[in-house]
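Re: the request from the purification team.
They wanted to know what the chain is likely to look like in 3D before they choose a buffer screen. I agreed to run a prediction and write the result into the notebook, where they can find it.
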Amino acid sequence: MPARGRNPQPVSDESPRRVRLHRYLADAGIASRRACEAMIEEGIVQVNGEVVRTNPAWVDPDRDRIEVAGEPVRPPDRRIYVLLNKPARVLSTARSEPGDTRRTVLDLVDHPAGARLYPVGRLDFETTGLLLLTNDGDLANRLTHPRFGVEKTYHAVVRGRIEDEDVAGLEKGIYLAERREGRTVGASRTARVRIRILKRDRDRTTLELTLKEGRNRQVRRLLAAVGCPVKRLERVAMGPLRLKGIARGAWRELTRAELQALRRAAHRSRRTR
């Protein structure tokens, strides 16, 4: 184990009791693995009283004292998987900024186990629909990381009539600006998108979009690029998981069959990319 008062050092192998720090934090329900890596790099994670800023770092959960923002990290709870039908005007972050009184999805899920859950990916403030909450960091990582390619499906109602050539262009991919720390740092092409027109009128189009990556507000930005801003947006599926039989704002735990299918999709997607 790392000596008291010193940062845990990366090692070349993993002993039975040593685990990667960001994975332990994710398994304890702090956030997704990528978010936990960012927390470490931001310097808000301490092991035995010392700040850890580098990845990877290894810890022994049975012997090391691990804290995030000064709060001790509890051992991982039992794994919980909640399917929420997110309403509009609710934040999908685990917590809002100081002074922000808007509701978050965690205000809607009062699980009797009292486990610390976090959302798997995000839906923006106005977007509704399927949102998974869990304390399983490994599955959350597989469902959100682009390299695993788990599909997400949305239904969108947009202003204006989308023509077939616009659909073809969007499906092949278009260039969207990349922003970091509030600055534009270039542009990159979006991955292929499958689009199906559900209804098309003179001044409104309803369509279904299925994509594997999840850039910030990507669906809205794609459709705005062809002059059809989104009026309503709902996520209806994540991999094999479907949004059915759940009222807006309500939640339920996944069934065993749903969880098994979701895990298979997360592993299969990586092999078939």
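For the purification team: Helices lie at 21-27, 33-42, 137-144, 164-172, 218-225, 256-272.
Please add any questions underneath this entry.
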